[in-house]
Amino acid sequence: MVDSSELRAKHDVSFVNADLVNDTLDIPEADVILCNNLLFHFDEASAEQLVEAMVKHLAVGGIMSFGANAKQVRMSGNRDDTDYPEWRRRIAQKLQAQGIEAVLYDTARKAPFVFRRVS
Question: What does pTM read for this prediction?
Answer without folding.
Answer: 0.74
